[in-house]
Design goal:
It is a single-pass type I membrane protein. The chain has 618 residues and is α+β, with helices and mostly antiparallel strands. It is 13% helix and 31% strand.
Length: 618
């Protein structure tokens, strides 16, 4: 009775004429799954709980027929395709209640060791399954995830397996729908449970050491061959095998020890010196006799213990001095001691004068009982002229066993001091030198002066050489400029050599500057000329400048006007330079200009016998 859809048929007959336009609906194909209302055309389900997993698509043939007329009942048909949509109404189910897996004990942590699968007849997201391990036997060692592509449960290893410790594990796995439809809660729980049994397979494994790391101690200078400890490894497999030991040689330090291949005992191979090396760190490898390729490794740390073999000595070399005006009982130096041995907690050093120095009334040693001592004066004043240096032997002993001692000699220098005890000088030659300066300081000052003089001489020489080079370069530049001005240009065919803009704009050259490329015989000041008008004819301008240059004996023959007039080697007119020009215009014959072609027609008209009309010039 669930509503599916409604169909409607139309009749073109007149609805007012009998029953010709009245339509009745019926199903010709599609029963018993669907039914239709004959009047409204509403299609509904005819069976309860239609299962998409059984059949997904249905074709329903529907007929619409009118109720009468002269031709009898006329009918029309149509086909309706109905597809069932999936809902999450089926729980997942395991195909079997127990899954058996065999896993080698050598499997790595995090690796997949097996797969199980529950079946859900739904489709799409309604068939997505979530797997969980029920807390129990294998909850700590195993984990399970869902493969999104196959919806399988992938069992993974969380901790290493050991056949010798436990050979089998049993736990339960629950499969449930990830997306639940609350409309179908009444159907039942949408989950299923199965049991997983895992059997651990025994594998041939390497030996196992009894400790993760071994620490041993040995005294320095222990005789060679002394056993200082042992390591132990066992084969835990069912068929136990013997174990062999050897040192993993990496450097020469490992040669200080040896190991018994069968027993695993470690012995010294050379004399050890704590002051040279206080700790040794190396590795020992254990392998199975039945399968030498199966090995395991462990670190061994050996600490070398100190033996009191070195006597204590004065920690630093002291520069001790005493004033000439010193008083008895005055402390002139505090001394400390050091021992190359590893001093134990509470190590004490004692200080005293040697037996031969105890009878001399110059200095004494006061032991402060805290590993320090003071050097004190025993007489009233010392003379530098009588004795400049005193050598004081001090005996230092330690408190370790066996007791070690040494005699250390302090050098005490007599110095001249002021009334406050401030040292002024400690040697005889210093008396004759200025206050505050020694011989070494004077020598250093003289060396600095000599170096400064050498630097100044080199600097002056370089400056002179640079000035000479600059002058030579300047002369060469002048000579180059003269050669440049001798260039007559490329002639009328060269349109890029010169700029003739000055001829078209007379104002540009109004300022007549003194030439700098040659040195004139006499200094000639520029002539002041009235400024040319903007429309001054070029011919008048050229004639004016030509007369001025012809009359000026100091002007060179290669002035800029002559340069622009040079026609070059490629012109039939040859050179028009003013160098070969006559003094007056009347002495020249310009009839030959008419023979040079159309390009010189304007010049021929300007300088010919015919009258020249400027208005005709273009």
């Amino acid at each position: 009775g669930a509503y599916v859809l409604q169909v409607k048929a139309t009749d073109a007959d007149d609805p007012t004429y009998g029953n010709s336009a009245r339509v009745v609906y019926s199903i010709l194909q599609g029963q018993p799954y669907f039914s239709i209302d004959p009047k409204t055309g509403v299609i509904r389900t005819a069976l309860p709980n239609m299962d998409r997993e059984v059949k997904e698509q249905y074709q329903v043939l529907i007929q619409a027929k009118d109720m009468g007329g002269q031709l009898g009942g006329l009918a029309g048909t149509t086909t309706v395709n109905i597809t069932l949509t999936d809902v999450n109404d089926n729980p997942p189910r395991f195909p079997k209640s127990i899954f058996h897996l065999k896993v080698p004990e050598s499997s790595h942590v995090g690796s997949a060791i097996g797969r199980i699968r529950a079946v859900d007849p739904d489709f799409g997201k309604n068939a997505e399954i979530e797997y969980n391990i029920v807390p129990g036997d294998g909850g700590n060692l195993f984990d399970i995830t869902t493969d999104e592509n196959t919806q399988e449960g992938v069992i993974k290893l969380k901790k290493p397996l050991d056949f010798e410790t436990k050979k089998a594990y049993t736990f339960k796995v629950e499969a449930s729908n990830l997306h639940l439809d609350h409309r179908f809660h009444s159907v039942g729980p949408f989950k299923d449970t199965a049991t997983v049994k895992i059997n651990v397979l025994d594998m041939d494994e390497p030996p196992v050491f009894s400790k993760p790391i071994y620490t041993m101690e040995v005294y320095e200078d222990t005789p060679v061959g002394t056993i200082i400890g042992a390591v132990t490894a066992q084969d835990l497999d069912a068929g136990s095998s013997s174990v062999r030991y050897f040192i993993d040689w990496k450097n020469d330090v490992d040669s200080y020890f040896t190991i018994d291949a069968t027993e695993g005992t470690i012995a010294t191979n050379e004399l050890l010196d704590r002051e040279s090396t206080a700790q040794y760190n190396f590795s020992i490898i254990a392998s199975k006799v039945s399968n030498p390729l199966l090995t395991s490794k462990v670190n061994v740390i050996i600490n070398v213990l100190d033996v009191n073999e070195f006597p204590p000595e004065i920690s630093v070399p002291y520069e001790t001095s005493v004033c000439e005006n010193a008083k008895p009982g005055q402390v002139i130096q505090i001394i400390t001691a050091a021992d190359k041995d590893l001093s134990p907690a509470g190590q004490r050093f004692s200080f005293k004068l040697s037996s031969e120095a105890s009878n001399k009334p110059n200095f004494t040693v006061h032991d402060y009982r805290n590993n320090t001592a003071g050097i004190e004066t025993r007489r009233n004043g010392y003379s530098r002229r009588q004795q400049e240096l005193y050598f004081l032997p001090v005996v230092i002993e330690d408190s370790s066993y066996p007791v070690q001692s040494s005699t250390n000699t302090l050098t005490i220098r007599v110095c001249r001091c002021d009334s406050d005890g401030t040292i002024q000088s400690c040697n005889v030659e210093a008396i004759f030198l200025p206050v505050g300066l020694s011989t070494g300081a004077l020598i250093a000052i003289l060396l600095c002066i000599v170096i400064l003089l050498v630097i100044v001489v080199l600097y002056v020489a370089l400056r002179r050489q640079k000035k000479k080079d600059t002058l030579m370069t300047s002369k060469e530049d002048i000579r180059d400029n003269v050669i440049h001005y001798d260039d007559e240009g490329g002639g009328e065919e060269d349109t890029q050599a010169f700029d003739i803009g000055a001829l078209r704009n007379p104002k540009v050259i109004e300022d007549n500057k003194i030439r700098r490329d040659i040195k004139p015989d006499t200094l000639r000041f520029p002539r002041h000329r009235p400024p040319a008008e903007d429309n001054t004819d070029i011919r008048d301008f050229i004639n004016q400048r030509l007369k001025e240059n012809d009359a000026d004996p100091s002007a060179p023959p290669y002035d800029s006007l002559a340069t622009y007039a040079y026609e070059g080697n490629g012109s039939v007119a040859e050179s028009l330079s003013s160098i070969d020009s006559l003094t007056t215009e009347a002495d020249q014959d310009y009839d030959y200009l008419s023979d040079w072609g159309p390009r010189f027609k304007i010049l021929a008209d300007m300088f010919g016998e015919e009258s020249y009309n400027p208005d005709k010039v273009t």
